[in-house]
Structures are given as C-alpha cells and as structure tokens.
Write a structure and sequence with these properties.
The chain has about 140 residues and is mainly beta. Helices cover about 10% and strands about 45% of the residues. It comes from Hydrogenispora ethanolica.
Length: about 140
C-alpha cells in the first residue's frame, strides 16, 4: 500500500524552522569519531581521532571479519558550597567497526598518542595456487 520513503522536509517547515529542521542536524552520527584510512601498499593505516579519552578508555577488538574500536568515558563531579550540593555524572561512548578483508589479523599493531589512535593492518599475503597436474587413472 505505502512504499518506504526517506523522510523529507516540506518547504514551509524549512522556511519557518530553518535551524530545527536541518537535515545535517538529524543525520549527524553522534556515537562515532573521525577516521582516516590509507593504503601504503604493504598495509592499511587507520588514524582515529579520540580526543579526551585515555589509553585505558579504548578497546580494539578483532572478531571474525570485523575490527571494532570502542571508547567509553565516565566522569563524576561533586561541588559543595554553603547551602547547596551539586553532583554531575557524565558517560559517553563511541564505536566504529571496519571490515578486515585481506588483512593479516595476527600482525595488527596499535599506538595511542596525543588523542590519536593509530592502527597498522598488514595486508595478508596472497596465496598463489601453483599449477598442479593431476594424473588420470
């Protein structure tokens, strides 16, 4: 009866609510982080920007054909003055996954420095099938 269609804003919504009905606002991926991926020929390099996180907050896992980078940060603040108490708790986490096609999973290296996680993913050696003659009986 109805087809699935992406949500689009009407012209009047854009005119009267330009800031609220901003497609960029709704399409932002808040639980992610910026990454750069490059191919050096021998390996893939991933540089993930994780400012504000410590090395202990970050996990890098390989499961089946996926590499997952996750980071979680928690902070608690308590302030006491004459007649009030203020407590704040914040928790945030980000995560991204990448396919590991053609990567030697056993030789992946990671380094975290100045808020940037650098991963080196060596390419798997191509298995060349030599020509083999099969005798017929």
């Amino acid at each position: 009866m109805f087809d699935l269609m992406p949500f689009r804003f009407n012209d009047w919504e854009r005119k009267f609510f330009p800031d609220f009905f901003n497609e960029e606002f709704f399409n932002r991926d808040i639980a992610s982080f910026r990454t750069d991926i490059s191919d050096t020929g021998k390996e893939y390099l991933i540089e993930a920007e994780l400012p504000g996180f410590d090395k202990e907050d970050i996990t890098v896992e390989v499961k089946e054909d996926r590499l997952t980078i996750a980071a979680t940060k928690e902070s608690n603040t308590e302030e006491r003055k004459d007649n009030y108490l203020r407590k704040e708790r914040r928790t945030g986490s980000v995560m991204r996954s990448f396919a590991l096609d053609g990567v030697d999973r056993d030789r992946i290296r990671a380094e975290f420095k100045n808020g940037v996680l650098k991963l080196a993913l060596p390419k798997a050696e191509e298995v060349k099938n030599p020509v083999r003659r099969i005798d017929i009986n």
